[in-house]
């Protein structure tokens, strides 16, 4: 009875000791002791209680959910901007490409794509149990739209690991090589961009460029292919481009072919030429998806790549295999010394190798359509070559193309 009366007094009656007697005082003392044991009430002053409560609020903040919320909000904002760009494009308004700033590129580079690609390469070599091969490969076929009717071996059970499946061969004579044109597509893929090189700048996709000199590196390799080196003018941005044009009346052309993960992963010689020099850049392994290529300027200059340089009937010719995420392994069939995505090579450098020797002054002769190399998953091929000014591409940006089909004519 006294306890009940004490509770009533403590909540409903004025705080006067005379109303409730000693029981009420005892109950109030117990509540005071409990009140003092609470963490946010350990400080007696009002200001102290406020600071302690603030500390309690900070303790309840979780950084991971905050990071997820912030990242999700940014992605939502970015996707909304892209949606508006697409709507403007539909009504005929040209929208400039969204280019990543230096901070965004630096953050992307912090992702250990080289390490992940090496791990992926080792996983590809793990032999799968027979019962697991068909479900795994069928999922990949469904995801990337692989046409297995073109494969030389259609039975999925015959592929022991993912690596063999990625590097599957085509049926003989399935890709006839066009003999009436001087340059053919080296691989199955999508045409990202093509045209003449202007002011030493090359477009990787429409509106997004990269430096020709940064992409190929110093022109010291020109000595290996016996090109006539002209005096360079450092103040003229096109001077490096002029070094590559060795014949009067010629111009420099380029073509970019993107290989999707579902495409045939081998690449072939695009013309009759001789390969005299190889330059390997051990760069990053960022994605070369067309969406990323439109976002990151000089993406191909950041990524690991293998530049094969030489000559064809009209002068300078080069083919560059550009690596990408999970495509750290670039293989050139006639070059057994090449090792890509290796920990011994550091970013920002390059390694040269000459195919010329005292016993071989011609280098490596390649015939049009001949097997040249392969990727592990899918990537990009960049062709840079010298040709007469009347050379024209018979292409459209974004079109699908197959190995062996013509790129252009004189």
UniProtKB/TrEMBL annotation:
GO terms for molecular function: phosphatidylserine decarboxylase activity. Residues 1-60 are mitochondrial matrix. Its cofactor is pyruvate. It is found in: Lipid droplet. One of its GO terms (cellular component) is mitochondrial inner membrane. It is an enzyme of class 4 (lyase). Catalyzes the formation of phosphatidylethanolamine (PtdEtn) from phosphatidylserine (PtdSer). Plays a central role in phospholipid metabolism and in the interorganelle trafficking of phosphatidylserine. May be involved in lipid droplet biogenesis at the endoplasmic reticulum membrane. Heterodimer of a large membrane-associated beta subunit and a small pyruvoyl-containing alpha subunit. This is Phosphatidylserine decarboxylase proenzyme, mitochondrial. It comes from Salmo salar. The gene is pisd.
